[in-house]
Amino acid sequence: MCVNGAERFHLLFYGILSGILFWALRIDVQNKLIYVYTTILVCLVGAIDEFIQAILPMRCFDMRDIVMNWFSGGLGTLFIVFVLKPVWDTAKGGKGCCLKNPYT
C-alpha cells in the first residue's frame, strides 16, 4: 500500500492550491471561466505530480491519488465560489468585484 501521512493532506493542499491559482488568475481572467481554468490547472498539476511519482524509484503511482487531487481542487474552487466570493462582494459593496483587475 502507498498510504502514508502526507497523502492524507491531499484534500487540504490541493484545495489551497486552487485558491492560490484562482488568486493568480483573477488578475488576467475577467470572466466566469476563471473557475474552469482554476479547476483544470489543479487537475493537471495533480496528474503530473502522480506521473512523476510513477517514474521515481521510492514513490508509487496510485490512481486514487489523482482522483483525490481532482476532488480537492474542485472543492477548493467551490469554496471560492460559494464562500469567498460572496464575502468579497459584500465587503466591496458590489457584484462580481473579485473578478476585477486590482491593478487597473
Automatic annotation (TrEMBL):
Transmembrane found in the keyword field: yes
Q: Which domain of life is it from?
A: Bacteria
Give TM segment ranges: 9-27, 33-56, 68-88
Q: Does the keyword Membrane apply?
A: yes
Which keywords does this chain's UniProt record carry?
A: Membrane, Transmembrane, Transmembrane helix
- What are the residue boundaries of the VanZ-like domain, all occurrences included? 11-82
What is the protein named? VanZ like family protein
Organism of this sequence: Kuenenia stuttgartiensis
The top of its lineage is: Bacteria, Pseudomonadati, Planctomycetota, Candidatus Brocadiia, Candidatus Brocadiales
